[in-house]
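Bumping my old thread because nobody answered last time. Still need a sequence for this structure:
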């Protein structure tokens, strides 16, 4: 029995053919973003901690691995997200490029902990950022582009859940709530616990404000229904402004989706959702597919740059593991042909030019057909011709992202 290496919890080996499928999916996603004018950038895997986790990036600090750089003697952080790196590139390296600036990326991130829906701590991300222009048109472009690219991959019934995490803070602006109480209220809102919300708020803000917050908790649902109910609520001016921004993005996204031929995109609204949107400053969104519990991706409006207010920006991050799990099984790849020694390297080269995967023999084979079958080839090149062979016996099944974790041997 071969002893396998124990990997850290949440780390995995991706094996053939899934690794090829993942790479092909990344190429298709990036090509989809490129068709909208988003240019690829490639930030480093780690940066100095005091820059990567500064400003809006501070919200990512709990999920960042840290290590000492032996050269500079400064602390480094492994990126837990790519968005803030792209924002840095836009505002520092590409600050003279004309706006709006459209950038895209694909890469791996590492988290200190997994989540309830994702145990993996190394996750592939593919994303796009639109920098230098405000809502609602920029938000609508990113939302519809992301949903459309996912639909073009073959993921059906893509749902976009819009949120406005700035609504509740605007509603409570000027109220002298204890910080601990605000944290407990935020937790209750995230859990959609209307009873807990009322119990926390009523003693200090009164029954009216408590009832209003409880009403917001219950409003999640289809965009038209939620917006109709939101518009009937009596909100203070700051909160009403956030509501108007949400309505504008929803209407613009719906119109753009229809114009671009993506009528299957469904739009919902959850006006109090905040989890995962800690550094966002306006309308946010999460992408879901029918039958898949985890998010395909998320995004929204934020300020690009670590100094001052920064530039207006909006973006999307797609989570590659969930996207892959939502796709139909990969189609059969390019045909594999075994080229025995007697057929020569010239024939192998010609077959590759013709689109085959040509597996050249490194030593003479007693039975070329049997060797082709052993190597999983569908064809064999003999006497100047390509001939089919019977499929190889199936290999034992395995988990495509099989890994050993502590306690699992």
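Sorry it took so long. Here it is:
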């Amino acid at each position: 029995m071969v002893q396998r290496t124990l990997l850290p919890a949440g780390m995995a080996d991706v094996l053939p053919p899934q690794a090829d499928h993942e790479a092909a999916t990344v190429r298709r996603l990036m090509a989809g973003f490129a068709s909208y004018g988003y240019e690829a950038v490639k930030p480093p895997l780690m940066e100095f901690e005091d820059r990567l986790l500064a400003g809006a990036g501070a919200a990512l600090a709990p999920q960042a691995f840290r290590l000492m750089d032996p050269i500079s003697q400064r602390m480094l952080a492994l990126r837990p997200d790519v968005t803030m790196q792209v924002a840095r590139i836009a505002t520092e390296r590409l600050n003279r490029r004309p706006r709006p600036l459209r950038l895209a990326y694909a890469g791996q991130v590492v988290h200190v902990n997994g989540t309830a829906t994702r145990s993996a701590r190394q996750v592939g991300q593919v994303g796009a950022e639109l920098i230098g222009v405000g809502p609602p048109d920029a938000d609508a472009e990113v939302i519809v582009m992301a949903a459309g690219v996912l639909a073009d991959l073959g993921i059906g019934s893509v749902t976009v859940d819009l949120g406005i995490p700035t609504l509740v803070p605007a509603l409570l602006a000027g109220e002298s709530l204890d910080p601990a109480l605000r944290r407990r209220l935020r937790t209750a809102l995230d859990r959609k616990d209307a009873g807990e919300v009322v119990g926390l708020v009523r003693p200090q803000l009164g029954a009216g404000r408590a009832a209003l917050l409880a009403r917001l908790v219950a409003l999640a649902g289809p965009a038209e229904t939620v917006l109709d109910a939101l518009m009937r609520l009596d909100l203070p001016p700051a909160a009403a402004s956030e509501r108007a921004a949400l309505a504008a993005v929803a209407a613009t996204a719906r119109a753009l989706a229809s114009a671009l031929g993506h009528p299957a995109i469904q739009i919902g609204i959850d006006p109090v959702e905040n989890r995962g949107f800690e550094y966002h400053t306006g309308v946010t969104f999460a992408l879901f597919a029918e039958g898949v519990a985890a998010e395909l991706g998320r995004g929204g409006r934020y300020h690009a740059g670590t100094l001052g207010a920064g530039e207006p920006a909006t973006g999307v991050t797609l989570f590659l593991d969930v996207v892959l799990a939502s796709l139909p099984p990969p189609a059969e790849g390019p045909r594999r042909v075994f080229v025995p020694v007697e057929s020569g390297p010239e024939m192998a080269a010609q077959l590759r030019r013709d689109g085959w995967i040509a597996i050249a023999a490194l030593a003479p084979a007693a039975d070329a057909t049997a060797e082709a079958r052993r190597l999983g080839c569908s064809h064999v090149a003999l006497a100047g011709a390509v001939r089919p062979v019977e499929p190889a016996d199936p290999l034992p099944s395995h988990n495509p992202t099989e890994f050993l974790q502590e306690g699992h041997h």
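The longest strand covers residues 101-110. Let me know if any region looks off to you.
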